[in-house]
Amino acid sequence: MIALWTRLGRPFRGRIALAFLLATAGGAMAALLLGVSGWFLTASAIAGAAGSAYAFNHLYPSATVRGTAMGRILARYGEQLVGHDATLRLSARLRRHLFEAEARARAGLARPASDSLAVFLDDVHLAEGALLRLWLPAASAAAASLIALVFAGLAGWVPLAVVAGGLALALATGRFGIAEQRRIDARLQTLNDRYRREAASLVENRVELEALGRFGDAAAALGSLSAETAGQALAAGRRTRLAGAFIAMLGGLSATLAVMLGSGATVPLLAGTALSVLAAHQSLAIALGALTAYPATELALLRLNTRIAAPPAIAEPADPAPAPGTILPVRTRQLQIGFPGAAPLCEVPDLDLAAGSVTEITGPSGCGKTTLLETLARLRPPPGGALDYAGIEAADLRAAAIRQHTGFAPQMPDTMRGTLADALRLAQPDADDARLLEACRTALFMPVVTRSPEGLYQSLEEGGSNLSGGELRRLAIARAILRGPELVLLDEPFAGLDAPMRETLAANLGAWARGHAAAIVLATHIPAAGLWPGLTYRQVPLTLSSKRHTSG
Ligand SMILES: Nc1ncnc2c1ncn2[C@@H]1O[C@H](COP(=O)(O)OP(=O)(O)OP(=O)(O)O)[C@@H](O)[C@H]1O
């Protein structure tokens, strides 16, 4: 927790310290309230029985009881208020840092697996609750225990030893509970991981499973896995409740022993000691119940720390060159492309991408066409060779400065839920409708826009699932050219198009590139030199590297 908090820049120190202070005060007041009440009621009763009720000054003790009762309520209320406030602020900062770190560390455009996303969200949830659920109750229990020890100390050495022993045994039970939970978690985690993976895959592959008539079986299998996981979690919960009951019972036992063995102390003091001990054990039992979530939280914090500290996919220069006004020409020399920890996919023929040019990257499936486009968009570092933009080495420029001049339409585009206009404006938030329509016309996306009276404001489902594959690709092309980038990277833009549509789309994009002095690079299985009049045309074939299969 401290490591993660330090990584976040130790924010909201004052608020967090105040939440701890209030939790400590709340715990102390709860034990004090019971202790003083026990002492006061017993002393009053004894005084009354002895017929000296009027001689007994009850004003100070009763004021203390009322004061601690009020103080306890205020401290608990304040702890909740300040603790929640600190947690919400911490969460906002944690999420921003995590999402930024994720975005920096992720190379290329591939989607993260859904199960890794589920683990990530669970981890964030656990980390966010750590302060409220674990640390504040622990602080409160520690303060209550201290007050019980003070009462016992006033009652004499023997009660002090008994109470200290009871508290030590309760703590040992807590430690044992955590160790046991760690063991259970390891077992539960295997089940949970399997459940998450299978649930994510069921949702992701629902359409295929339905088409193959296998959805019902898969859902039933997931249902029994879910029941098994829930059963294990319930069994773990039973053990926690048992440990809590044991701690409460220990409280009763050490309170009784303290009273029985504290012969040197006054009866009211012994009564106060007994009640404060019960309060301390109750706080400890609550804290222990929460602390059984400690192993899972510890693991979540470790994973989140690792994510935040993950090195960026593209290392940013320590002393970056000023953002260039233009990135063309883009030049590569003996550029290699590939993935970290694996042999380069291939060496790319040298490229000189100038304004008004079109370069078709061709080659067999899997040779690295997409990987090359991602490398040119600075989404992925090249394992070797030279890559520069307008004469500046890529490594000396911020990736964002390059991407600002780049438009990328991936082979399998993704969109968020919203409207067509929302999806387009991700590229250029201030673009007006006329500009959106112009991009849609160039990308042959108008048939989709005009088929609904809502036009650009018709709804778009998550992942573009209410568009066909070809329509989604053309939406991505419209988005890629919307802000007038200098370098346009198109992955299989013609896939699924018939010859006349392919010609029209190429003619539109060619005219657009001439008008905007842009360089187009496209990965394609269907090269067509004749489609690009008025542009400098080059076809660049990639070949499968023989090294890939023998090294890496
Ligand atoms: N994250 C990854 N880690 C390791 N290898 C990968 C990863 N992603 C893709 N590959 C492999 O890299 C190779 C190149 O993939 P790429 O998508 O660039 O090929 P492509 O030429 O665009 O293929 P296609 O024409 O089928 O779209 C493939 O063999 C692929 O299996």
Automatic annotation (TrEMBL):
Molecular function GO labels: ABC-type transporter activity; ATP binding; ATP hydrolysis activity
Segments forming a coiled coil: none
ABC transmembrane type-1 domain boundaries: 17-263
Gene3D superfamilies documented for this protein: ABC transporter type 1, transmembrane domain (1.20.1560.10), P-loop containing nucleotide triphosphate hydrolases (3.40.50.300)
InterPro entries: AAA+_ATPase (IPR003593), ABC1_TM_dom (IPR011527), ABC1_TM_sf (IPR036640), ABC_transporter-like_ATP-bd (IPR003439), ABC_transporter-like_CS (IPR017871), P-loop_NTPase (IPR027417), Type_1_exporter (IPR039421)
Entry's localization field: Cell membrane
Keywords attached to this entry: ATP-binding, Membrane, Nucleotide-binding, Transmembrane, Transmembrane helix
Membrane-related topology note: Multi-pass membrane protein
Keyword field contains Methyltransferase: no
GO cellular component: plasma membrane
Main location: membrane
Domain ABC transporter, chain residue ranges per copy: 330-548
Segments traversing the membrane: 40-60, 134-154, 160-178, 242-263
Protein name per UniProt: Thiol reductant ABC exporter subunit CydC
